[in-house]
Backbone:
């Protein structure tokens, strides 16, 4: 039995539609950072890095407040913020690796 990409994607979307109303999860968790029509790649990169930096700052702030005994901060909020920051940072590292790889490939092309 072979599962194609499109059938797997359709299955995942069907499961998401079934789960979303029951669990209170938004149907489309992806969000667009900015309107990319006519936006410079450098600006998009700066915005993305700023977003990662903000997530890391928020996670650090929550961790500090939790350690200091702030009762308004829960452990689960702190762990979730840390994981969001970690995932965002890992994604940024992967994008950087791909950019460096593409640069090296372009530079090794004969002129």
Residues:
């Amino acid at each position: 039995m072979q599962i194609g990409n499109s059938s797997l994607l359709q299955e995942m979307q069907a499961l998401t539609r079934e789960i979303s109303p029951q669990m209170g999860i938004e149907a489309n968790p992806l969000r667009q950072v900015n309107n990319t029509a006519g936006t410079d790649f450098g600006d998009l990169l700066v915005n993305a890095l700023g977003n990662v930096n903000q997530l890391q700052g928020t996670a650090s702030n929550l961790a500090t407040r939790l350690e200091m005994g702030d009762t308004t901060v829960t452990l689960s909020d702190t762990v979730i913020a840390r994981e969001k920051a970690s995932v965002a940072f890992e994604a940024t590292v992967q994008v950087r690796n791909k950019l460096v790889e593409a640069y090296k490939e372009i530079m090794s092309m004969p002129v």
Q: What stands out?
A: The chain is about 70% helix and 0% strand. Residues 32-107 form one domain.
